[in-house]
Amino acid sequence: MIKIGIIGGSGLDDPKILKNAGEIVVKTPYGSPTSALTCGTMEGVETVILARHGKNHNIYPSKVNFRANIWALKEQGCTHILASTAVGSLREEIAPGHLVFPGQFIDHTRKRETTFFDEDVVVHTPLAEPFCNNLIALISSCAERLGIRYHRDKTVITIEGPRFSTKAESHMFRSWQADVINMSTVPEVILAREKHIHYAVIAMSTDYDCWHEEEEPVTWEMIVTTMKKNAANVINLFMEAIPKIKEYDDICLR
């Protein structure tokens, strides 16, 4: 049975988008998830929403309990995860307000638990293609139908945070061929793959980080303002894509 997990970031965890919504509190072997789970249906499909940074956005990136979050969604029977996130753009063509569906990541974090396999057994998980290509194709076609500007096959670099980059770092990340930057995709995507959950990111470009000489350096207020203006696009994309996932010609994770 198909069941969708939505991991909400920066204001995209509103339970009002679900019908017959109810909240449950769960525990995992890794402690508590960062929020209670809001369970209901979206366009007739069972859906679970989890707030990555807490319901009040009070958990900073390095303190997000990623293992508990992914474990909780797996235990609730989620087969697919659509994860929303704010990203800074490292490319001129990825303007604030555009959506990005990354196909690759670079891990520039330093102190996060990145695996479930840290005791008893060693598992080397293949990650050449870390995101679900079928999900990316589906949400891309849905964005096309909705007339939403998007980019796919891009690389996201995840930094530790909560601080933003220096100009030197921002230029370095550009030289590494990263296209967007955030503080949340790693280790979320790795853990989802370890649990054999189809995972894709719906990222919203909110700013040009600090490399762009003609733009103001990123601030939290800038991110929130852009997210509020464009949150409807992401919610509309959820509602367009989720009923199609159960009909999509998906494949099992390797």
Word description of this protein:
It is globular and about 50 Å long. It has 254 residues and is of the alpha/beta class. The longest helix is centred in the last third of the chain and has 26 residues. A hairpin with a 2-residue loop joins strand 3 and strand 4. It is built from five helices and nine strands. Helix content is 27%, strand content 26%. The protein has one domain: 3-Layer(aba) Sandwich (Rossmann fold). The mean pLDDT is 91. The relative contact order is 0.21.
The CATH homologous superfamily name equals: Nucleoside phosphorylase domain
Predict the CATH topology.
Answer: Rossmann fold
| Largest sheet features | 5 strands, mixed, barrel
Strand content: 25-35%
Mean of residue pLDDT values: 91
The neighbouring-strand order within the major sheet is 5-8-7-6-9
Tell me the series of helices and strands, N- to C-terminal: EEEEHEEHEHEHEH
Which class in CATH terms? Answer: Alpha Beta
Helix-residue proportion: 25-40%
Which descriptor suits the 3D outline? globular
- Detail the poorly predicted runs: none
The CATH architecture name reads: 3-Layer(aba) Sandwich
How many domains would you count in the coordinates?
1
Cα(first) to Cα(last) distance is: 19 Å
